[in-house]
Hints:
By secondary structure, the protein is α/β, with parallel strands linked by helices. It has 2 domains: about 15-45 and about 325-439, Aspartate Aminotransferase, domain 1; about 50-325, Type I PLP-dependent aspartate aminotransferase-like (Major domain) (Aspartate Aminotransferase, domain 2). Helix content is about 40%, strand content about 20%. It contains 15 helices and 17 strands. Helix 4 packs across helix 11, helix 8 (about 175-195) packs parallel to helix 9 (about 220-235) and helix 13 runs parallel beside helix 15 (about 420-439). The chain is globular, with a radius of gyration of 21 Å. The structure holds pyridoxal-5'-phosphate. The site of pyridoxal-5'-phosphate has 15 residues, from helix 4.
Amino acid sequence: MSHVFPRHTKNIPPIAVGGEGCYLIDTNGKQYLDASGGAAVSCLGHGDIDVTIAIKDQLDKVAFAHTGFLSSEPAEKLASLLIEHAPKPLDKVYFVSGGSEAVESAIKLARQYHLENGEPDRKHLIARRQSYHGNTLGALAAGGNAWRRAQFDPLLINVSHIAPCYEYIGRNDGETAHQYGQRMAQELEDEIIRLGPGTVLAFMAEPVVGATMGAVPAVDGYFKRIREICDKYGVLLILDEVMCGMGRTGSLFAADIDGVAPDILCIAKGLGAGYQPIGAMLCSDKIFAAIENGSGFFQHGHTYIGHPVATAAGLAVVNALLDRDLITRVQEQGAKLKQMLENIFGQHPYIGDIRGRGLFLGMEFVSDRDAKTPFDPSLALGAKMKKTAFENGLICYPMSGTRDGKLGDHMLLAPPFILDNNHMDELVEKLGKTFDAVL
Ligand code: PLP
């Protein structure tokens, strides 16, 4: 009898005992093609020798030094490497242990920045519906996933939510993608005005929405307009790249593709690639300077921030992404996989949209392609899809999002960047088998 508290008490998972490349192996020797990298985590695949050696080497030197007393070599090197490649003016890196912590830190830093600047009235955060920013209370409040929030609503800080930029569902007939993006961005300005300019501390969004929408990028021009609006009202722009960052969408930082620089950027998942729990919040010089020239202390901190072994793993991961030119590979393999999905499933009566960037791809399931009608939630399509795929030896990430109240089902694919053509054939074959059984 297991004493581990599982995610689903009615669905106890098998035990993983091995990981090799794109596969995980359980105690029965069954192999699973990890087509979602867990949840967009395992970007290097399993068993990467360079990362393993980097972790062991760091353990031989020093496993832990509390950042209240000492920094560590890998933390220093990783911060410099990230800043070298990050959108300017990001300049400082605050290491944490995962995505929710990165988002919590970002919300608190945004608040403290305004306090240091003598603007205590800035206390409203604006985020978007159908988004996920993590499961701790602050991050959960920022997210717009009604299902995850429901039972904790009384404990959550008050966050305003505007519509996401979701072209497949939201663009009107006769409206260009650009016009649609501008209309969606306008919701931010309207909400700032409604709340009162001078009361909003930040706007938070995922450049490519992962868990709640299934790899949905914004249309061109949306984030540029968002940046302008934030600047106009002194609102900080926080981009959450916990899922879509670290090369996943074809550039090290997803914001690069949208041509915007946030004031604060959150990363996690692919940063540790599953080898260590690590996340980070990057902030601009302007924000750091406000604290440096003000109180001198960010009123935050966890025991394990900047952990030497976690940052050593992160450093090895980012070096692997750069030295092995894996981001070019993401672009190439991503384009190939998307094309395969379109060729094979593009006319499927129940697949309404195939989308995404790089190796961050999504499919949306609909009961009627023309009307884009979501399936009846009681069918629990996502859960059935996940179970059937898993039985077929495939790990993928089907989810039910909430399209402004109405459920919508989608699947997220986020395979390791080392995915080769044979893996793709296997993936598509197993997906087909799964769709045949469930749809
Ligand atoms: N932000 C985004 C965009 C995410 O997708 C997630 C997790 O899926 C998080 C934050 C939370 O990260 P974690 O689960 O590491 O706390």
